[in-house]
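ok trying this again, last paste got cut off
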Amino acid sequence: MSLNLRPYQARAIRFLELWEIAGWRLKVYGITCGSGEPSAGLAAAGKRVVEEKLRQVDSAVDHYGVGFLGIHEGETANFVFVDWWADENELHHHVWASAIDDPNALEYTTPSGVIACVWDIRLIGFERDAWVGAALKNSGGPDLDDYLERRLNEDV
Protein backbone atom coordinates (compact mmCIF):
# COMPACT_ATOMS: atom_id res chain seq x y z
CA MET A 1 0.00 0.00 0.00
CA SER A 2 1.32 3.43 -0.94
CA LEU A 3 0.28 6.52 0.98
CA ASN A 4 0.44 9.92 -0.63
CA LEU A 5 1.62 12.15 2.20
CA ARG A 6 1.29 15.88 1.72
CA PRO A 7 3.62 18.32 3.46
CA TYR A 8 2.36 19.35 6.89
CA GLN A 9 0.64 22.73 7.02
CA ALA A 10 -0.41 24.49 10.18
CA ARG A 11 -4.11 25.04 10.77
CA ALA A 12 -5.85 27.73 12.76
CA ILE A 13 -7.53 26.67 16.00
CA ARG A 14 -9.71 29.46 17.34
CA PHE A 15 -12.09 29.76 20.26
CA LEU A 16 -15.40 30.91 18.76
CA GLU A 17 -17.86 31.14 21.64
CA LEU A 18 -19.13 29.70 24.87
CA TRP A 19 -22.30 27.81 23.91
CA GLU A 20 -24.96 27.04 26.50
CA ILE A 21 -27.46 24.39 25.45
CA ALA A 22 -29.69 21.88 27.23
CA GLY A 23 -27.97 22.40 30.59
CA TRP A 24 -24.46 22.17 29.10
CA ARG A 25 -21.71 24.78 28.70
CA LEU A 26 -19.34 24.05 25.84
CA LYS A 27 -16.32 25.90 24.51
CA VAL A 28 -16.77 26.01 20.73
CA TYR A 29 -13.64 25.93 18.58
CA GLY A 30 -13.16 26.31 14.86
CA ILE A 31 -10.32 24.54 13.06
CA THR A 32 -9.58 25.50 9.47
CA CYS A 33 -6.95 25.15 6.78
CA GLY A 34 -6.87 28.93 6.44
CA SER A 35 -7.12 31.77 8.89
CA GLY A 36 -10.90 32.11 8.87
CA GLU A 37 -13.68 30.37 10.71
CA PRO A 38 -15.58 27.27 9.57
CA SER A 39 -18.58 28.05 7.39
CA ALA A 40 -21.83 29.08 9.06
CA GLY A 41 -23.51 26.06 7.48
CA LEU A 42 -21.03 23.63 9.00
CA ALA A 43 -21.25 25.36 12.39
CA ALA A 44 -25.05 25.12 12.36
CA ALA A 45 -25.02 21.47 11.26
CA GLY A 46 -22.44 20.65 13.93
CA LYS A 47 -24.43 22.30 16.69
CA ARG A 48 -27.55 20.46 15.54
CA VAL A 49 -25.99 16.97 15.81
CA VAL A 50 -24.23 17.82 19.07
CA GLU A 51 -27.38 19.15 20.68
CA GLU A 52 -29.17 15.94 19.73
CA LYS A 53 -26.35 13.85 21.26
CA LEU A 54 -26.26 15.89 24.47
CA ARG A 55 -30.01 15.50 24.96
CA GLN A 56 -29.46 11.71 24.84
CA VAL A 57 -26.84 11.62 27.62
CA ASP A 58 -28.16 9.37 30.37
CA SER A 59 -28.98 11.35 33.50
CA ALA A 60 -27.28 8.57 35.49
CA VAL A 61 -23.92 9.50 33.91
CA ASP A 62 -21.99 11.52 36.48
CA HIS A 63 -20.86 14.48 34.35
CA TYR A 64 -20.08 18.14 35.00
CA GLY A 65 -22.12 19.67 32.16
CA VAL A 66 -18.98 21.18 30.61
CA GLY A 67 -16.78 20.32 27.66
CA PHE A 68 -15.85 21.45 24.19
CA LEU A 69 -17.06 21.28 20.61
CA GLY A 70 -14.65 21.19 17.66
CA ILE A 71 -15.87 22.26 14.20
CA HIS A 72 -13.14 21.29 11.75
CA GLU A 73 -13.41 22.36 8.12
CA GLY A 74 -10.64 20.32 6.52
CA GLU A 75 -9.30 20.12 2.99
CA THR A 76 -11.35 17.12 1.89
CA ALA A 77 -13.91 16.59 4.68
CA ASN A 78 -15.68 18.21 7.61
CA PHE A 79 -15.38 16.88 11.13
CA VAL A 80 -17.36 17.76 14.23
CA PHE A 81 -16.56 16.37 17.65
CA VAL A 82 -17.90 16.94 21.12
CA ASP A 83 -16.16 16.03 24.34
CA TRP A 84 -17.33 16.33 27.92
CA TRP A 85 -15.90 15.60 31.35
CA ALA A 86 -17.42 12.92 33.58
CA ASP A 87 -16.56 10.77 36.58
CA GLU A 88 -13.87 13.17 37.77
CA ASN A 89 -11.24 12.53 35.07
CA GLU A 90 -12.88 10.83 32.07
CA LEU A 91 -13.38 12.42 28.68
CA HIS A 92 -16.34 11.30 26.56
CA HIS A 93 -15.65 11.80 22.82
CA HIS A 94 -18.07 11.65 19.87
CA VAL A 95 -17.31 12.36 16.19
CA TRP A 96 -19.30 13.13 13.01
CA ALA A 97 -18.01 13.65 9.44
CA SER A 98 -19.31 14.84 6.08
CA ALA A 99 -18.06 15.64 2.63
CA ILE A 100 -16.52 19.10 2.43
CA ASP A 101 -19.30 20.33 0.11
CA ASP A 102 -22.19 18.85 2.12
CA PRO A 103 -21.94 19.93 5.77
CA ASN A 104 -25.58 19.04 6.46
CA ALA A 105 -24.80 15.37 5.76
CA LEU A 106 -22.83 14.85 8.98
CA GLU A 107 -22.73 11.15 9.87
CA TYR A 108 -21.95 9.73 13.30
CA THR A 109 -18.56 7.99 12.97
CA THR A 110 -17.62 7.21 16.57
CA PRO A 111 -18.29 3.44 16.17
CA SER A 112 -15.78 3.34 13.27
CA GLY A 113 -12.92 3.80 15.70
CA VAL A 114 -11.68 7.04 14.10
CA ILE A 115 -10.80 9.38 16.96
CA ALA A 116 -9.16 12.54 15.64
CA CYS A 117 -6.56 14.00 13.32
CA VAL A 118 -3.32 15.64 14.47
CA TRP A 119 -4.93 19.10 14.69
CA ASP A 120 -7.93 17.83 16.67
CA ILE A 121 -5.57 16.01 19.04
CA ARG A 122 -3.79 19.31 19.79
CA LEU A 123 -7.10 20.77 20.94
CA ILE A 124 -7.93 17.66 22.97
CA GLY A 125 -4.50 17.84 24.62
CA PHE A 126 -4.99 21.51 25.51
CA GLU A 127 -8.40 20.75 27.01
CA ARG A 128 -6.90 17.89 29.03
CA ASP A 129 -4.39 20.29 30.55
CA ALA A 130 -7.12 22.87 31.21
CA TRP A 131 -9.19 20.23 33.04
CA VAL A 132 -6.24 19.05 35.12
CA GLY A 133 -5.43 22.63 36.13
CA ALA A 134 -8.95 23.83 36.86
CA ALA A 135 -10.40 20.64 38.31
CA LEU A 136 -8.01 17.87 39.32
CA LYS A 137 -5.20 20.02 40.76
CA ASN A 138 -7.58 22.56 42.29
CA SER A 139 -7.54 21.99 46.06
CA GLY A 140 -11.03 23.48 46.35
CA GLY A 141 -12.52 21.05 43.84
CA PRO A 142 -13.45 21.58 40.20
CA ASP A 143 -13.71 25.25 39.23
CA LEU A 144 -15.88 24.99 36.14
CA ASP A 145 -15.76 28.72 35.39
CA ASP A 146 -11.95 28.64 35.47
CA TYR A 147 -12.00 25.64 33.12
CA LEU A 148 -14.31 27.44 30.68
CA GLU A 149 -12.05 30.52 30.69
CA ARG A 150 -9.00 28.52 29.59
CA ARG A 151 -9.11 28.77 25.78
CA LEU A 152 -6.85 27.82 22.90
CA ASN A 153 -6.09 30.20 20.04
CA GLU A 154 -3.11 29.20 17.92
CA ASP A 155 -1.87 28.03 14.57
CA VAL A 156 -0.61 24.52 14.98
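PB: full thing came through this time. The helical segments are 40-55, 118-136, 144-149.
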